[in-house]
Amino acid sequence: MIRRSILQFLLVATLALAGCDSWEVSYDSPDADNGNSNSGENTPEITVNDNSVVEGDSGRKALEFTVRLSASASQTVSVDYTLNAVEATEDTDYAHTSGQLQMRSGETSKAIEVEIIGDTEVESGETFELVLSNPVNASLKDSKATGTIIDDDSSSNPPTPTLKIDDRAVNEGDSGQTNLVFTVEVDPPATEVVTVDYRTQNATAASGDDFDAVDGTLSIPAGESSATIEVAVSGDTVEEGSEYFTLILSNPENATLPSDPTAKGTIVGDDQAAPPPLDPGDDATTAEAARFLTQATFGPTQSDINALLAMDNLEEWVDKQFNEPMSPRHYPYVDTYGGDSKKDFRHDIWWKNAIQGKDQLRQRVAFALSQIFVVSDVDYTLKNSQRGMADYYDMLVEGAFGNYRDLLEKVTLHPVMGIYLSMVQNEKADEVRNIRPDENYAREVLQLFSLGLYELNQDGTPKIGVDGRPLPTYRQADIEEFAKVFTGWNFKGASWGQEAIESDTNRVDPMEPWQEYHDMGEKYLLNSATLPAGQSAEIDLKQGLDNIFNHPNVGPFISRMLIQRLVTSNPTPGYVARVAAHFNNNGQGVRGDLKAVVKAILLDEEAREGHLTMPTTFGKLREPLLRFTHLWRAFDAIPRDGVNDEQFYVKGISGFEDELGQGPLRSPSVFNFYLPEYIPPGVLQDSDLFGPEFQIATEGNLVNTNNIIHTLIYSLNNVNKSLNSGTAGTFLDLEAEEAMATNLDTLLDHLNILLMSGSMSSEFKQSLKAHLSTISAGNETAIKQVEDAIFMIVTSPQYLIQQ
Amino acid sequence: MNKYVNINRRRFLQRALMATAGGATLAATQGKLQLMKSALAASTCSASDEKSLVCVFLLGGNDSFNMFMPYEQTAYDQYADARGDLAVPRSEILSVNNGDAGFRQELAGVRDLYNEGAVSVVQNMGVLIQPLTRAEYLDAVASRDLSKVPEGLFAHNHAQKLWQTSAGTVAGSSTGWGGQVAEALAGCNTSDNPYSFSVAGNNTWQTGRTTLPMVLHPSRSIDLMEGYEAELDNDDWSDSRAALMNQLLQQAKTDTQFLAQQAGYTVERAKLSSERLGNILDNTPIINTPYDPDNKLAVQLRRVAELVHARNTLGLKRQIFFVAVGGWDTHTGQKSRHSGLLQMLNDGLYSFYRTLQELNLENTVTTFTASDFGRTLTSNGNGTDHGWGGHNLVIGGSVKGGTYGTMPEFEIGGVDDGGNKGRIIPTISVNQYSATLARWIGVSETDIENIFPDLANFASKDLSFFA
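Output (structure tokens, whole complex):
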């Protein structure tokens, strides 16, 4: 549902264009010296038939005229064509077209398609003419044909509108009642009153306990396009999963039922459900453990899989991760080894923590947050602020298990963000100097870090206004008010002025307020809130951020983005609603608790079973960096620089992230590496599915990634290369796999779990096995088999989708 | 790029050239293609002409009112008054048109090309659904009736999409007009090689209904994709591996998992691009025109020149290119930053045009600039914020040089201001500009009407900046 409703407004233009094939003509180039003088005996004659089509009530259809030649011509034949209205009206009943039709030598017929516009008006026969002229290399036998649009609307039998109803979800709450509101739409609006009976039916939710049963008749007045049915849902604190009931429509009058006259009403359980227990020793459980770790870490390892299987359930693992001490901060490492101008050292410590950190969940969530609260040193203003960049990332790692509201404030006041979105030294309006506050941070904090452009339902679907358009969350005037809120902040200990921005100022400690540059006027915020005049920069900032934080969009907006980063590109509305409920209330009345959000994302039924319940659409394209962390973790990367083992070198291939299209805090703009709503042409577009990561799966990036992985596997492993040879690089430890290769089934089963979470098809496995069996290289046979197996798995399109 | 690559390039070239003659349609390998008839099919092109269209997108919103501005004293004074301390001193303006207007001095090269008749300046243009006066715009905003005003005007991603999709009413549309133009022109090309290229990553402009651009790095060579070819002749092992990898790729294209299927097509595109284009970029022409390898725009345009030069070899009569440089979102430090950006723009455009002249291609290549939006005339103390209308440049040997449209009134809260911050309401629609460019490269009138539906709302369908 989310996809359909978002696409309804995202893709109107696309669909409209795709749906109006106008005609089919040749691409052939006209002859430059084509004359109009052919009158020889062999000149073929052009004929064209009349045709008709039933117009339909809406949308567009094609009426096809077939232009024929009496014989094939030796040269390209062309003829001009245009349309003349007779009883039909141009651009109301049909779309005007004109042009030149060409038939190549050998062709004897070709179609001209005219687009017919459907309506529900009662009309008498509508006709128009196709007129042919200026034949080249042929003569005209017919110069006209009539197109008839057969009206299917009649006064005695007006069009019958169709009803429509969609699924809805609501959070149950801990007590009291909440209404679940279903909208019944009538399309097109009827000329008489429409009535329809409705009633609820128990499914997993039970009337009386979970909701109040309804049974009645809905009336929709003539001309109205919709009416609503409300079902009261009862809150509780019982730990239960989501439950649903069914709303059923029947006995319509003056309208027809939709093909599916039922709607699911989901009551989202916002009380923590008991997670499924683990059953070690079962193959499916081992695979599921690997799949879970793919979502929750930088990639499963054999030892992590074993450790997880030793626990009672997944929640125990999550809780342990919450208490795992944080890996070393980036800042001291960059400060010691790199300094402000060398980004490679910031990257090295990122890789070290991602690959070796015990606090995998924290690090993975921080990486997801770094793609929401985006700063980037691709921008020259931050290129030489590597200490500040490192500290910014540390702030995200520290905040990953904290509260969103606290993190939002830290992000806002971090000097690196101050530089990136120019909030530093943003000053109040000054009429004498003809200046006004900078809108940059105000705009992006609303659009990208918290609310998004459109009002959202709690399940992440956009709210649509009466005009059929999504409702904007804020207007330009709101941006200008927030711009005033964010005035009067400067680097700690710096003077006010351009010099301070350009010089070596403090880029680690939070910015500090300068009241004389802060706008002290009243400010009008969202939801009709007002900040009174005369408040300090600190108070205005806190209250301004509170105003944003308490907007109902934040839960679904942030939840959906985190789900996309960790689990799946196309979460169902129910999944978003369940996670958003935990954002809104962690069970103890706290809003914005990221631990609750993360746990809800990972333990949700959709995360755990989506690959089975939605096998065609569940999952996401692996991000480039995650392909490398996965490989290095799966095979216990041994980083060697040949000089100093204190440092974690991934420099076997220098600066290689830039060749992948992704690097930590390296996105091209504040809009991240890809947009959450990116849809590539092809099967995803045809199926209305998002695929954000496909935006950077460009030819160049994929070739580079493929080839760097080739190098890693074949040239940098500890079996075919001595670690003491002095080669710098990150080595894969393949000794265990080499030993397994004596039995190819054992090797492939092991790699299937570790790399594909058990999803390798038997066909894939048999093909691989057949190939590996052909390898004969003496005492290098085993390692060559291992190298090939890993390489072919991790470059396969099947592997590229994390499910 | 990859020092470990050890493929025999020469053997590969032979295969690549063979592949060009037949095989899969690389330009549009995905999804619907086989099922749908092209909705845009009436565009024609004659046998002899070749044309390439190059979009130079200035990401972030160029303060173009400080790129080309009034020079005549009275008009200049108004401009200077409105722009306050961001005003470019009159002494730093290189005047044209008998002293009416001028380019900021960083654009000396572009000014020279202008004087040669190779540059059109299209003034105060922006995304519009229909012409709008200040009163109409303010009414629409006040009454929240946004049917006449494009959605999300001042947000970067939406503004870019509006520019690139041509669908003024739907900011979220994912189909770009460049991609649709490319699809309309596909029949002109005699090979199935890619003809829509980006040297600046994926972008909406070139995303058609069935096609994506081939995305290339601006300067690196294109390596073979390891594993999909035998490494040595008569090597049974790597032959077997290559056969299996290709088999896995083909299987993925029919995978019932939609994302895996998409990944199959995506990897195949990458594989084919490396096969088809690697040799082209390893055998580029010798070009004597100098360019600055540190100039991000110039580097991208150099690659474009190489690919335009290879048009014949690739069997292409029509090409579409996307080039982009960021940094134009000058909320802060505008004075020095914008100067540097304009210098980059000038040097890149100038060396590109001279390069095309050297290759005798300047009359068949048109380069145009685009940007999210113009910027506020007013200052935030240190820079400017998101505006609306702005100027853009069209450069090429086919261009009828001069200025088009009108300079706005430089008055805060004045007749052209969309409020009281100097967010200037454009008087020319991006669709008029884009349609003029599409017409030049050979798109038929009917296709133009389909691609630019809002064009119907404007009296002039063509800005006449081509000779």
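The radius of gyration of chain A is 32 Å.
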